[in-house]
Amino acid sequence: MLVILLCLDTSSSSSIKDVSSINDVYNLLSNYAEKLMNNSRENILKTLIEPKDKFQYHNYDSMVEKLKELNNKYPNITSLYTIGKSNEKRDLWVMIISDQPLIHEPGEPEVKYIGNMHGDESVGRECLILFIEYLCINYEKHDYITQLVNNIRIHIMPTMNPDGFEYEYKQTVHALGNGRLNANQIDLNRNFPKLEFERLNNKNNEHNIVIPKQNFDNTNNYLDELTNTKEKLEPEVRAVMHWSLIYPFVLSANLHGGALVANYPFDSNIQDSTSKESKSPDDQTFKMLAKAYSYAHPKMYQGNACVRFNDGITNGAAWYIIDGGMQDWSYAYTSDMEITIELGCNKYPDETDLKSYWDDNKGALLAYITQVVHGIRGFVFDSKTKIPLSGVMIHVNGIEHNVSSYRDGDFFRLLTPGIYDITAERVGYQSETKQNILVGSQSSTYIEFKLKRKDFSNTTSINNDTRGTFSAFVNLTSTNVRTLYHQTKDFILHQNLFLIIAGIFALLVAIIFIFVVIYLKFCQKSTSRTHTGFQRYEPLVQDENDLPIMERQNGRKILRNNHALASESSDDDDGDQTLFSSKIKKPMIP
Questions:
Q1: Of 22, 75, 142, 536, which has the maximum CB count within 10 A?
Q2: Which residues are paired to 115 by β-bridges?
Q3: Cα–Cα distance for residue pair 199/180, rounded to 1 Å
């Protein structure tokens, strides 16, 4: 077992990228993003190669053809997959762009873009198709894109509502917005599980922060519970929920149309609230993320488009309240921070205007996903075995929202610059707190936790004095039991350790099985000999006329041998045939 653990520890450490070199890369990426957010924007963009695709709308078939073409052209950095199907059975395609597109690299953050959630809001769809090619064509040709692809795993879904767009695409007039809904006439951005809010019960809550009620704790909710809702979840919504839960997304954006603004959580609010804003615990971080997109856009930050917004950003509920929105659900149920970006006042502009929309948004699309390098990052290990720990809650003191570590023990927590106390907690382990962690404005700060198992050895001896304490220990809540269950599943999914242990176990089972088979064969052989010898001399009691398998051959009645060996001829003239053959071990008539 020690050898196994040593091998595992070596494998794990070799997969964790060097902290110092990653810091240097993150600083580089952060510098590029800063330039995109100020007057140096055009200087960066003019050094990048433009996509070769035409500025045109792609219907479903042409979009799939384009995605497959890019996947075939850049197989080393792309992976094309589907997360499910729409109501009309169209695949919901996603393209991964990464130097290791097929795997999650421990310590590497994952981000996602989703477009065309409303079928008539088409700009995001076309910008994301162009953005995929933009990343691919500049890889290993521009340092910014190369480092971005090498150090961030990027998932891009051009359309979440292919049915709605297909309907809208066929219309001659697009101002009516008939393709907004999916094929089942449901608004997908109202179909996610609705949240119930309460005001943060904290004496320091001077900013009127609201939080989802306790039953919406993002660290203890799983897909079977998420889908337990009175309202039917559409297949597109269910697919995105499942996708969001199985991938460790850190940062996301959902592209819409109809305004020019970056909208951040919460979209919903406490019922009968007197405050227009619905501030999340991460309100400052969300503002930082929204400004990253707005400031990298040549017009959005000015805030004077069809609807006026200061700095081109807004709290969702302060604009207008919606229930069942995707960005609120993502924040409440996962470790992902998501905003909604409105790309322009015209939801379905003419094809001749697509180039100007692309020019306005390409730099902002780059700057936004680069924000994933900020905050804190790190790993959590078992202090004794050095095994990475998944499902560990990472809590920032003063912010009532946790993230959790993934299967390799890695975690990411986006934060604004400042000094924080960070705590790691997991059932069965002693919590650990790192105090006064400095978070800068560039590379995220690396933290490593090594949690110690709790010592329950003294709780096994029960007497009158300790019975109450022991009962309290074993009386786990249903939440803890569920957490233990899912941590067990996480352990099984940990490939290195599980495969080694499973291999040893399988080998032992195979050895035992072989011995059992040999023993049974030996017993069967002995029994078969005895049984056959006995029946060899047993008289045939049936009358000849009662034997339907009798046939006449050469003037004599014989028993047809349906199981005769190939070497035995059916026209044998020997009249001394028997009911048994010496060449087989069992009687020909059972």
A1: 22
A2: 255
A3: 33
SS3 465: coil
List the structure tokens of 196: 């119930």
Distance CA(218)–CA(402), nearest Å, equals 7
The answer to whether residue 134 sits within a structural domain is yes
Closest CA to 536 of 570, 582, 583, 573: 582
Quick one: which of 370, 343, 401 has its CA closest to 288?
370
Please return the burial class of 381, using the count of CB atoms within 10 Å of its CB with bins 0-12, 13-18 and 19+: buried
Q: Alpha-carbon Rg of the chain, whole angstroms?
A: 33
Query: Of 228-232, 238-242, 274-278, which has the strongest mean pLDDT?
Result: 238-242
Adjacent-strand bridge partners of 395? 423
Q: Which two tokens stand for residue 563?
A: 């199981």
* Residues 78 and 196 grouped into a single domain: yes
Going by C-alpha positions, the residue among 139, 59, 53, 56 that lies closest to residue 97 is: 139
Q: Tell the burial category of 562 from Cβ atoms under 10 Å away from its Cβ (0-12, 13-18, 19+).
A: exposed
Assess whether 137 and 205 both reside in one domain.
Answer: yes
Q: Rounded distance, CA 147 to CA 142, Å?
A: 9
Please state, in angstroms and rounded to a whole number, the distance separating the CA atoms of residues 245 and 41: 35
State both tokens at 132. 């995929």
Q: What is the pLDDT of residues 317-328, one digit of tens each?
A: 999 999 999 999
Active-site entry in 110, 168, 342, 425 = 342
Contact 370, 31 (CB under 8 A): no
Choose one of 454, 484, 513: the last residue of a domain: 454
Q: What distance in Å separates the CA atoms of residue 4 and residue 27, rounded to the nearest whole number?
A: 37
Convert the pLDDT of each residue in 146-164 to its tens digit: 999 999 999 999 999 999 9
Q: CA 524 from chain center: how many Å?
A: 52
Lowest mean pLDDT, pick from 183-197, 305-319, 340-354, 444-458? 444-458
Count of alpha carbons within 13 angstroms of residue 11, beta-carbon side: 14
The reply to whether 218 falls in a domain is: yes
Cα 509 to Cα 68: distance, rounded to the nearest angstrom: 45
Tally the domains of the chain.
Answer: 3
**CA pair distance 437, 441, nearest whole angstrom:** 13
Among 373, 388, 403, the domain-final residue is 373
Residues 127 and 248 in one domain: yes
Res. 182: pLDDT tops 60: yes
HSE on the CB side for 117, CA within 13 Å? 26
How far CA 123 is from CA of 36, 133, 355, 359, in Å, comes to 21, 16, 10, 12
Amino acid at position 370, single letter: T
Tokens 């109809």 sit on residue = 258
DSSP SS3 for 74? coil
58, 66 contact by CB (below 8 A): yes
Please say if 342 is a catalytic residue.
yes
Q: What is the DSSP letter of 416?
A: -
